[in-house]
Amino acid sequence: MDKNIGFIGLGIMGRGMTHNLLKAGHAVTVWNRNPARMDEFITAGAKSAASPAAMTAQCDVILICVSDTPDVEQVLFGAQGVSSGVKADALVIDHSTISPHATLEMATRLNSQGVRFLDAPVSGGSEGAAKGILSIMVGGDAEDVERALPILQAYGKTITHVGKQGAGQTAKLVNQILVVINQLAASEALLFAQAGGLDLSKTIEAVKGGAAGSWMLANRGPQMIVRDFRPGFTIDLQQKDLRLVLEAADQLGVPLLATSLVFQMYRTLQAQGLGGEGNHGLVKALEQMMGVELGK
Ligand code: NAP
Fold first, then answer.
1. Predicted TM-score (pTM) of this structure
2. What does pLDDT average to over the chain?
3. Whose CA is nearest to atom 1 of ligand 1?
4. Once rounded to an integer, what is the mean pLDDT over residues 173-185?
């Protein structure tokens, strides 16, 4: 079993995942671009590395959770990147949500160095990362998935091997289509409930366990009605994912009507400087059209 685990990217998601690795008793080495983010993990018993390349000297498995495709490229192949120090037979697992196409290219480059690779994007939000109950969609070879399982189980509850390298990212894009359309549904439904004079908390309670329930409604609905738009997942990152979805849909020739609409709605919010708010801020685009505010 792999003993030394490296974690790159201690943001909203990486933070919860790394704490759960430590709780499960793994030996963890961390690296984050902004070094101040490493302090709490050193206090909690992790080691720190001076760079992704330096991490490879002491780690058999390297986990990555950074923002976008160029960021994964940077930590893997940039100056002081993982690929410049990594040992053959090390396993790299990318938990970021990035392009399936670029994932395949990066996997091929690493494989040519003898390094194993899995794409393993996650879903479940900051809450899922903190509680260790993420859904993880894994693409790659079965033997690598088996090797990764004891690690992924520290923060994943539903771990599904969906196919070959790149398939994890494609499954994650499916996930994101569902997330934003459920978010639009929750926004529209709660504004309708308010116009109809309903108590919004009671309405969420009444419908969330039935056929209309969704994670977005159950978790973000209560935040929306008290106007708490702090991010579990920012609008800017959500737009990054919708860009990936729409690019892939274009390549596949698949029309995505509602997803395209939501992309444009988020764009109006970004234009107003709201990209750092949570993705449940989508309701604000509808509020502006209606001239009302939810929860007021
Ligand atoms: P976040 O809080 O913004 O954290 C991003 C992390 O990536 C930070 O540690 C940041 O380092 C690092 N980073 C970004 N660009 C980098 C670069 N060029 N080189 C090195 N490090 C870099 O984002 P997050 O919410 O944790 O999301 C991380 C990934 O998980 C994204 O792909 C996102 O789509 C995905 N995801 C997020 C959620 C969610 O609900 N938040 C759910 C599922 C999946 P610094 O600290 O130095 O900025």
1. 0.94
2. 97
3. 11
4. 98
- Among residues 23, 87, 172, 202, the one annotated as catalytic is 172
Give bridge partners of residue 91 from the DSSP assignment. 61, 116
pLDDT at 96 over 80: yes
Token code pair at residue 150: 């004891």
25 burial level (CB within 10 Å; 0-12, 13-18, 19+)? exposed
172 is catalytic: yes
CATH 3.40.50.720 fits 4-164, yes or no: yes
For 171-290, give the CATH class: mainly alpha
User: Does any ligand 1 atom lie closer than 6 A to the CB of residue 73?
Assistant: no
Q: Which of 41, 237, 241, 244 to mutate to test the pocket of ligand 1 (most atoms within 8 A of CB)?
A: 237
**Residue 81 near residue 74 (C-beta atoms within 8 A):** yes
Give, as one character, the DSSP assignment of residue 84: G
Work out whether the CA dihedral 279, 283, 286, 287 comes out positive or negative: negative
* Nearest to 5, CA basis, from 49, 35, 40, 37: 49
Paired with 63 in beta bridges are 7, 93
What pLDDT is attached to residue 184?
Answer: 98
Ligand 1 mean position to 83 CA, how many Å? 20
Q: Torsions phi, psi of 161, nearest 5?
A: -85, 105
For atom 13 of ligand 1, the residue with the nearest CA is: 66
| Domain ranges within the chain, ordered by starting residue | 4-164, 171-290
